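Field reference: sequence -> structure
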Amino acid sequence: MRLRAAVLLAACCITLIFAASAIQAKTRMNAAEGAVRTADEEWMKVFSAKDLAKSVAFCEDNGAVLAPNAPVAQGRQAIAKSFSDFFTLPALKITWHADRADAAKSGELGYTSGTYQMSFSDPAGKTVSDKGKYVTVWKKQADGSWKVALDIFNTDMPGPGAP
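Structure field:
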């Protein structure tokens, strides 16, 4: 009888330890997911304000941006050039919203994906509107911040000559 009670008590303790560990892991994942979503929102704020220095600072030193109809912008210098060119569009307005955010169990990588909307004026002064989708891969830094490792976006609008 004592042996049975001891085995039952040990089994209960082991179950509680595993359950607590699983809860801690889920809590870490939820915290990382929230941090990635917050980083995405903060990046959108400085980007839509056309703050070049702060926009580039959100990217890793060796991060990459894969914009449509352009070569890969790899590294902060190339990203800065790409963003600088983009910010010169007359009357540029851009926003995006993450529909999804997730993080790896390790808490070191995460991603956001969602939709964007933007508009600018063409050389004739006519408003050009675009909407599309994006995926951003985020990497946790040693200081706990999240930086863009890879960003890609593309339009939902039909291409030239499309029906």
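Note: The two ends are 80 Å apart (CA to CA).
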